[in-house]
Every structure is written in structure tokens, then in C-alpha cells.
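Progress against Task 2.4 (sequence-to-structure conversion) is shown through the following example record, which the project officer requested during the mid-term review.
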Amino acid sequence: MPALERLEQESFSASDYPLSRANFLYHIKRENPLFLAYEEGWVLGYALGLLRPKSLRLYSLAVGIEYRHQGVGKRLLEGVMEEAMRLGKKEVTLEVRESNQRARILYEKAGFELWKRLEGYYPDGEAGVRLRKALS
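C-alpha cells generated for the chain above:
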């Protein structure tokens, strides 16, 4: 749990809805899929999914600062999509800040497409975008 909390602090400001220990425990208890990227005992990043009847929603993805730009986020995202297909889900969806170009590039390279713009989605008033990827 401390490693996940550290990743949250490094990756998200208060206006990005960071997850607390209680949030993580809530999702784990409800058997929402949690993917960890780790090496030699160190947690490099995580992805948390929410199961929906026909889809898997990527709720949060974070990679430690020192491990960014090394393919960790891509591998986590691939794991999320593989699990969604294994579970028979039709698509993976997510929301991200409209201005978060680094994340949007990662998602677009993985085949996610703009579904809708979410005006004023974040507490600071910034818009978000909802992306989705159909699975075959």
C-alpha cells in the first residue's frame, strides 16, 4: 500500500482526484482489477480498472517518475486490455484531462478514440475527455 500511495502523490495533484489508501482498499475488496508493474521488489506503476457489464473502465494509471518513458505505462495498458478481452468485455473506456498530452498520446497509440468531451470535469474547471477502445 505505501508504494501505491507514493505513486499517487508523485502523479496526481488534489484536483486530479488522487486515490487514498481507503480508495485502494475499497476497490481491491470489490475485486476490481489492479495491475502492478514491478521489478526486483519495487512497484514501478499500477493501473486500476472498474468492471462494468459490457466494458472495463480504466479508473487510474500511474507510473513512478523515475520509470516514465520506459514503456511501463504501455505494458500496464496492454495488461488492462488483455484482461478486458479475457473477461469478454466489448470495450475499455477512460477519462483524462484534456491538457494531459503525454497520457493522451499513450492512449491514442494504443487505439483509443475520442468518445466525448467533458466540459468542466475537474474541480479546477478543466475539461476532460472520455476515450474508448473497442475490443474484438
